[in-house]
Design a protein that fits this description.
It is a single chain. A two-stranded antiparallel ribbon has the order 1-2. Helix 4 packs parallel to helix 6 (133-147), helix 6 packs antiparallel against helix 7 (154-170) and helix 7 (154-170) runs antiparallel to helix 8 (174-188). The longest helix has 29 residues, at 232-260. The two termini are 27 Å apart. The mean pLDDT is 81. By secondary structure, the protein is mainly α. It has helices spanning 2-19, 29-42, 68-80, 87-106, 121-126, 133-147, 154-170, 174-188, 193-215, 232-260, and strands at residues 48-50, 57-59.
């Protein structure tokens, strides 16, 4: 019954999405992501145009962000064309929802709470864009689906370290959460050391190779200005407010869990 209800809610969201299909870019960063995605789809480092009078070729301004999202966009451009490449974001949302559903289900949690995902305004917004938020959601959902599996086999931590490292190709800040979980487990149990290292090399390889081809630097990295040390005073109030909400709710969940135990 839970799966039926979830499928019904997901179906309604998909139909609504298709009936109100995205018509254009919502965020200025999408310009860079999409242009780079088109270049990737064409197999060239960057797009360019030629001045008809001077015959000077000028490259388009490309993204300075990690290239994983542009590769994701390129895949959907090749699959269904630029006009319908928004379906990649829809695929991320639906697939992530199903993975989270299965994760909650096999851990005997309240799966129908997941229906709120279709009512979460920022998620509805980003699912209609080319921003890296949606591929990040999908990679994170895959990570937690593997993390909460019952097994503690060496292959599990090989896959987790690979997925966490791969998330760095999409957006650097993904590694803060996913990488921290892997690091914490590694500190507790070092017996899978070589599998951690192997998974890390597998996951980081796409970023190194693509950065070398498109940026001429495999270790290319850009520090987002809003995450610099100089912005701590600006960001701190928002982070504290968020933590006050989530830690309070999380504390109630933990307390209830301990009482039930």
């Amino acid at each position: 019954l839970d799966l039926t209800i979830f499928a019904l809610a997901g179906g309604i969201f998909i139909v609504s999405y298709l009936l109100l299909f995205p018509m254009g870019w919502l965020v200025s960063d999408e310009y860079s992501y999409v242009n780079q995605g088109i270049a990737v789809a064409k197999g060239v480092p960057f797009l360019s145009y030629q001045n008809a009078i001077s015959e000077v070729t000028t490259p388009y301004s490309i993204t300075a962000y990690p290239l994983g999202n542009s590769f994701w966009i390129a895949f959907w451009i090749k699959l269904c064309g630029l006009r319908f490449s928004y379906l990649g974001s829809l695929f991320c949302l639906v697939s992530s929802g199903y993975l989270i559903f299965k994760t909650l289900q096999k851990n005997n949690s309240h799966v129908l709470a997941l229906l709120l995902i279709f009512l979460y305004p920022p998620l509805a917004f980003f699912s209609r864009s080319f921003m890296s938020s949606m591929p990040s959601l999908l990679v994170s959902s895959i990570f937690f689906f593997i993390l909460f599996s019952k097994s503690d086999h060496k292959k599990k931590w090989l896959m987790l370290s690979a997925v966490a490292s791969l998330s760095f190709w999409i957006r650097e800040t993904n590694l803060v959460l996913l990488g921290s979980i892997c690091l914490f487990h590694f500190i507790q149990n070092r017996k899978w050391f070589f599998y951690y290292v192997g998974g890390t090399f597998i996951g980081v390889a796409p970023r190194l190779l693509s950065s070398y081809y498109f940026y001429d630097d495999p270790f290319f990295y850009i520090l987002a200005e809003h995450f610099s040390w100089s912005n701590i005073s600006t960001n701190l109030p928002a982070f504290v407010f968020i933590l006050m909400i989530f830690m309070s709710i999380g504390g109630l969940v933990v307390a209830r869990y301990r009482v039930n135990c």
